[in-house]
Amino acid sequence: MKGHDVGELRVRKELSAIPDYKAGKTAPSAIGVKDMFKLSSNENPFGPLPSVVDAIAGHLGSINRYPEMAASALTAAVAERYEVDPAAVVFGSGSVEVVSQLIRATAGSGDEVLFAWRSFEAYPLLVLAAGATPVRVPLNDDFGHDLEGFLERITDRTRLILLCNPNNPTGTTLGHEEVERFLDRVPSDIAVVIDEAYVQFNRRPDTADGIRLYRKFPNVAVAHTFSKAYGLAGLRVGYAIAPVGLASALRKVALPFGVTQLAQIAALASLKAESELGERVDWLVGERIAVVDALRRKGWRVPETEGNFLWLPLGAATSEAAQILEEQGILIRPFPGEGLRISIGGPGAAELIVDAVEVLVEKGHTGGAFEHAAKEGLQR
What we know:
Blueprint: E1 37-38, H1 50-57, H2 72-82, E2 89-92, H3 95-106, E3 112-117, H4 122-129, E4 133-138, H5 147-153, E5 158-164, H6 176-185, E6 191-195, H7 210-216, E7 220-225, E8 238-241, H8 244-253, H9 261-272, H10 274-297, E9 309-312, H11 318-327, E10 330-331, E11 333-335, E12 339-343, H12 349-367, H13 371-377
Helix pairs in contact: 1-9, 2-9, 3-4, 3-8, 10-12
């Protein structure tokens, strides 16, 4: 059958300004490479725990029924874990949908939403889809949030501020005291979201603690996900802990039945197995530290990272570098003109990352294609 183009059908004009979201590459395309490591999507490389699989399997026979929209059992478990009012907990189809709820509940046409750039790629797309205006605040020289830059860009149109901690894709973090000082200067009628998708990998002792900030400031909300450390990316479940009034507004814009029954069951089982899952997270953190240390010893400038990924600021050489790494058996996430984000993978991935990045240096020195990258990305 032939497809139809939009023709005379009316769609919102502003949608033409929204680029497609680019997910991490999935299909291996390297020629002559037997095994490919998919390190492009910040996924947990380990499959779900047997207890989580068993919990899901025990409910497969009831997927003909709608899930409980309130996610009562999971809400109670999260509320108990963080000692918050259950009314403050709101779930969504992954933390990206939760962030979408936060944007749509606070901002619309004529309103502004502030976030660092570069940060999570979905932020500007979600803001534009809500009809609001994205305000990108450039990162500082260390690839982290410039909080003074945020304050300078607050106007009477600002409705929401997004702080990604650790920041995706650079991995950098915010200190607790600096965020407290920042929040003291933000007008109390502007919501501030601490997006902690990678919080379990964050080992910075003085990092900004979203839950502590939520308890202290009445305009702070926190976004968490089960996709990363818990390894449930394929089931899509995340949540916000927000002031009760804001949480009520989130439920009004949430996708009805957006968190499936299986997702709720898997998330609940994962919370019960948190100590076992923590061992996997510890292993991934150890691999991250090993890779970063190895690259720095070779002269690479690798920014601080507290996620399950690292950032290589390759500038204009990024796209070519991504192709070279793919030829070495690694699928990574390129941000053309800026840098590469490389996720930490399973056993064997760390060594391959270090060896493959060494090929970049070799090709850069021989072909000259990486002269710009050498100035930006290497400590020479």
